[in-house]
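In response to a reviewer's request, we include the raw inputs and outputs for one of the modeled complexes. The three entities were modeled together in a single run.
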Amino acid sequence: MFEPFMVNAWLAGTLVAVVSGAVGLFVVERHRAFAAHAIPNGAFAGAAGATLVGASPLLGLVVFAVASALGVAALGRRRNDVVTALALVTMLALGAALLAASGAYEPAIDALLFGQVLGVSRGEVVALALLVVGAGAVLALVFRPLLYSSLSEEVAAARGVAVRALDATFLVLVAMTAALAVPVVGTLLTFALTVGPPAAARALARGAGRALALAAALSLACVWAAIASAYLSGWPIGFFVGAYAAVEYVVARAASAWREGRARP
Amino acid sequence: MGCEPLPEGRRELVHVHDVEVTLGGRTVLRDVDFRIAEGEFVGLIGTNGSGKTTLLRAILGLQPTSGGEVVVAGREGRRGGPVGYVPQRVTFDHDVPVRVADFVALGVDGTRLGLARRGRGVRERVDEVLASLELGALAGRRIGALSGGEQQRVLMAHALASRPRLLLLDEPLANLDLPRVHETIAVLDRVRRSEGVAVLLSAHEIGPLVPVMDRVVYVAQGRVACGTTGEVVRPEVLSALYGHHVDVLNVHGRVVVVEGEPGDPGAHPEVVVR
Amino acid sequence: MHWLVEPGFWSNPVVGPALVLGAVVAAVSAAVGVVVVVRGQSFAGHALTDVAMAGGAGASLVGASPLLGFLLAGIVGGGSIEAAGAERVRDRDVATGVVLGAAAGLTALLLYFVSSSTSATGSTQSVLFGSVFTVSRSVVPLGVAVAAATLVTLFSVRRPLLLSSLSPELAAARGVRPRVMGLVFVVVLAASVALSALVIGAILSTALLVGPASAALRVSRGLVGATVGAIVAGVASVELGILASYDSFYWSAAHRSVPVSACVVGVVLVEVAAATVWSRWRRGRG
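The model returned the following C-alpha cells for the whole complex.
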C-alpha cells in the first residue's frame, strides 16, 4: 500500500483533504454547497478546453474554475441557486461541446469526473502543495471577516466589512480548491469532500477554530481511509470518498442529537 | 417637519438631512429631516411597511439615498461608523460552531484581517457587555442553540461591544409579550445611561416607550414628524402626517392612536398604535 | 426552408422519437421547474439527476429497465433529502450535498462494475450527457406515461403545494401539512428529473428544469402564465436545439456535430437573457 507508486497518491490525497475540509467549513457556513458543486464542473469544462488547444489541463482547470466562481459571485446576489444552476449547465454544456470537438476518448473523461488518484505525478503534487499554501494563506487572512459575514451579512456590512469583495474572494478560494482537487478525486467527489466532513465537524465542535481543525481532520480521515480501501478492493476511490463522507455526517448528526438529548433531560 | 432645536445642552450626533430614498422606482421616504443628540433615546414609530427599516439602513450606509445626506458623528454616513446595529431578524443555523462570547467579540474585531489572537482588552470588554445585559451564563453556549429572545439579547451585546455612540434597533419589541417588552426597554434604558450611547429604536407601538423616550420620530406615508411625545402625538399633527383623520386617546394613562373615523368614506376605523 | 432544415431531418429515424420525447420531457420539466424555482430547490433538482444516474448504472448492471432504475433511485434520493432536511429548512443545503456526494460515489462504483463486466464503453458519457438521438423507440410509451402521471399529480396538488411553498405557517393553519407537501413534491420532482436525466442527460435535465421556468417567472406576473410560458420556452428550446445540432453536422467544415446538450443550453441561455433584459426594461419604464 505504501509502494513507491503510491507515495504521490498519499501526498496528493492529504493535500486535497486538508484544504477541502478547511474551505468546506465556510461552504457549509455560507450555504454555498450548490456553488461548490457547480464550480468543479466549470473546472471540468476548462480541462476539456485545455486538452483541445493542447494547453496544460491544470491551467484550464484554474482559469475556468475561477471564471465560474466570479460569474456566480457577480450574478448570484439574490437568486443565487438559479444563477448557479444556469452557470453549471453552461459550463457542462461547454465541456461537452469541447470534448466532442477534441474527440477525447472516454477514460480521460472518467478520470476527470471520478478522479484518478493513482495517476498523480510528482509535478502535480508540487503544484498542489503550492496551491494549498496559497489557499491556506488567503483563508488565514480573511478568516475573521469571513466568519463574521457568514453569520450575518447585514450586520457585518454595517460594521464596514466589504461583504461583496469577501464573497468573491471566498468563491475564488473554492475555485482554487476545486482546480487542485478535481484531477485527484474528480469533479463529483471534490464536492463530497467539501460538504460531508465540514458539516460533520460543525455539528460536533463548539468554537470556529476547533471546527476548522476538526473539518480538516475528518476530511483527512475520509481520504486516507478511501485510498486504503480503494487499494485493497480495487474499486474506484470516488465511491469510498462519497460513502465515508456521508457516514461521517450521519454519525456526527446522531452524536450531536444524542448529546443534546442528554443535556436537556 | 423639522425637529429643531436639540434638547438643551446636548451635542448633535446624527443629522438626517432632507433624505429621500427610492426603491424600484417608488419613493418610499422623502424630505426626512431630523437630528439625534448624544445619549438620547429616540423612538422611530410607524406601521409595518412605512419605511422604518429603510431609514435605519440609510443611517447605517446600507441603503443608498437618492437625495440628501446622513451625517453620523460629524462624518457623512457610511458603513463602519460608530454605530451598533440590531437587525429585526437574524436566524443562526443550529449547528453554527460559534459561541456567544465569540460572536460578541466579532463586534469588536470581526473586520480585522489575519489570525492574531484576541487581546485581553477585547475579552474583558466582551465579559463586561455580557454581564451588563445579564448574559454571563450564556457566554460558552453556541448561538444557534439559544432561543429567539436570547439571540436578540446576544445581538444587542454584539452591537454594544465596539462601544458605539449610536445603537440602532429594528423592531426589537415585535413578538415579545408585554412583560418582556417592559423588561427589554428597561435594559436598554439602563445600558444607554451606563454606556453613554444614543438609542434609535423602531417600533409600531408607541405606548410602552413613552416613559423612557426623549423624543419620537413618527413615520407615515414616507414622511416623518418629530419632537417630544407631547408635541407629536396629537390629532392635528398625526392627521397631517397620515393625510387623513387620526384620533389620539388617553386610556388609563396609555396612549392610543386611532386611525380614521366611523362613516369616513375610504377610512377604516382601526387601532394601529397602542 | 432548405437553408434552415438540412436534408433528411424529417425522414431520419432517430429524429422523430427525439423530437417527441424531447418535447414531452421539456414540458414536464418546465412545469415542475416553476415550482422548483419558487421553492428555491434548484440544487435538489440538480442533485437528483446525479442520484438518478446511480440508479441507471445499477439497472444496467442487473439488466433491468434503465427508466425503472432512474425512477427508483430518484425517489429514494429525493425522499432522503427531504427527510434529512425538512426538520430544519436551512440544513437542506447540506443534506442535499451529502446525498449528492454519496450518490456520485455509488455511480462511480456501479459504472466501474458495468465497465468491468461488459467491457462496454460510452456508458459514462451517455449517462451524464445523454443524447435524445440514442433513445430507442421502446422508451417512448413508458416515458410518456410517466410524464403524464407527473403532470397530473402536480396539477392536482398545485394549490396546497403553492400555499405551503409561499408560507408554511399559513398552509399549516389551513390544514395543509408542509412536510407531506414537501414529500409529495419531491416525488414529483424525482420522477420528472429521472425521466429527463434518462432521455436527455443530466446537463439538459437541470437546464430544462431551471432555465425556462426562471425566464418565464421574470416575464409573467401570474403563476398560470409563468407555467404556460415555461412550457412553451422549454419545448421551443429542445426542438430548436435538436434542429441546430442536426444542422451543425452539415454546417461545420469538419462535419462534426455540436452535441444536442450544448445547443439546447445555448437556446435556454438566450431565453433567460432575453427575459432578464425585458423585465429590466419594463421595470425601468414602470
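As requested, we also summarize the result in words. The interface with chain B takes residues 29, 140-145, 147-148, 151-152, 154-161, 199, 201-203, 205-208, 210-211, 256, 260 of chain A (CB under 8 Å). Chain A has a mean pLDDT of 84.
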